[in-house]
Design a protein that fits this description.
The chain is α/β, with parallel strands linked by helices and 336 residues long. The chain has two domains: 2-115 and 325-334, Enolase-like, N-terminal domain (Enolase-like, domain 1, 2-Layer Sandwich), CATH 3.30.390.10; 124-321, TIM Barrel (Alpha-Beta Barrel). The chain is built from twelve helices and twelve strands. The chain has helices at residues 58-67, 74-77, 85-99, 134-143, 158-169, 188-203, 223-232, 246-254, 265-268, 271-281, 294-307, 326-334, and strands at residues 2-20, 23-37, 42-47, 71-73, 124-127, 148-152, 177-181, 210-215, 237-239, 260-263, 284-287, 314-317. It has an eight-stranded parallel beta sheet with strand order 11-10-9-8-7-6-5-12. The chain has a four-stranded antiparallel beta sheet with strand order 3-2-1-4, with helices on both faces.
């Protein structure tokens, strides 16, 4: 199949600064792709790198797009190298979109119907702000229907975060599931303390809600430490930064990880190869956002709907970090 290829970079400011152990994030940058096949069917795709998380840089992705001709083929798309995982995702997703397999897209599609709400019945996890601000934010998200929340830890002094955590577990409704995300920011001793605290509270009947897991407690180079911790405590650990790309995902599985894998489809790489891996190994996966637009979000949620096994909430409850996107995204796409 041959495609007419167009692309356009974008910048999108967060409504509020996103703070993690990696630092502050104020502007989301990426690239929107448009592929038109020989029957004039249009497919949309998005490249949304997070270089500090393990993907290529935005400049590397732009350089790749700039060197492509205006007409490309399936062979071009399926030979994108593994060191450009967000490009793999963006181009393959645009192909799938254009094929009509998702029930979106049409010949000469200029209506940008990717903005139609996804019909998936997957539960969503809402992202809380770091620190004490979470104590004021959760109620708004609860009213919007969220029952699973993620809270960033490893951002402030552990003693202070444990104090906030104590308040949080007695403030959130008992039916809540809470995820604690360290973004690799804890020491081995701190990770032990968090896990011990969660286990101890549960054992003593003092944990009124469910701690679903602690996400990426240690840096990626401390895989063995996380493997040891996962076998030492009842509270589950999920890998995130350690499995950012398909190569890392396969490596951690081969080294014995059978716990939870947090998969960010937007940066993991080829959707077709991700499907093959998940079907072959039947991993326990949580699918999560990379603060993409509605274009990549639709592609990511299609994968989540296909590959989720344990009804875990998907980490796409991030709309409250941005201003309304519909008008902005439609205007951007009309320029392609």
């Amino acid at each position: 199949m041959r495609y007419q290829f167009k692309f356009r970079p974008y910048q999108r400011r967060f409504g509020r600064t996103l703070t993690t152990n990696h630092g502050n994030w104020d502007i989301r940058e990426g690239i929107i792709l448009r592929l038109t096949d020989e029957t004039l069917r249009v497919g949309w795709g998005e490249i949304a790198p997070i270089s500090w998380f393990g993907s290529e840089t935005l400049e590397q992705a732009l350089d790749f797009c700039r060197q492509l001709p205006e007409e490309i083929t399936d062979n071009t798309i399926f030979s994108i190298p593994d060191d450009l995982p967000t490009c793999q995702f963006g181009f393959e997703s645009a192909c799938e979109w254009g094929s009509g397999k998702w029930g979106v897209g049409s010949k000469g599609d200029k209506e940008n119907n990717f903005l139609t709400p996804n019909s998936s019945l997957l539960p969503y996890s809402g992202l809380l702000p770091a620190g004490e601000a979470a104590l004021n934010q959760w109620e708004t998200l609860w009213q919007q229907g969220y029952r699973t929340f993620k809270w960033k830890i490893g951002v402030d002094a552990i003693a202070h975060e444990l104090e906030i955590f104590e308040l949080m577990i007695h403030t959130l409704p008992a039916s809540t599931k809470l995820r604690l995300d360290a973004n690799g920011g804890l020491t081995y001793e701190e990770a032990n303390l968090w896990l011990w605290t969660c286990d101890n509270l549960k054992a003593n009947g003092e944990l009124p809600l469910e701690i679903e897991f602690i996400e990426q407690p240690l840096p990626i180079e401390q895989f063995q430490g996380m493997l040891e911790l996962s076998m030492s405590y009842e509270t589950a650990i999920a890998l995130d930064e350690s499995v950012a790309t398909l190569g890392q995902l396969a490596a951690c599985y081969q080294q014995g990880w059978r716990g939870i894998f947090v998969i960010k489809p937007g940066i993991v790489g080829s959707p077709s190869r991700l499907r093959k891996f998940c079907h072959q190994h039947e991993i326990d996966a949580v699918f999560s956002s990379v603060f993409e637009t509605a274009i990549a979000r639709l592609a990511a949620l299609q994968l989540a709907a296909e590959l989720s096994r344990n009804n875990r909430a998907v980490g796409f409850g991030i709309d409250h970090f941005f201003e309304q996107e519909e008008t902005w995204l439609q205007s951007l796409c009309k320029e392609l």
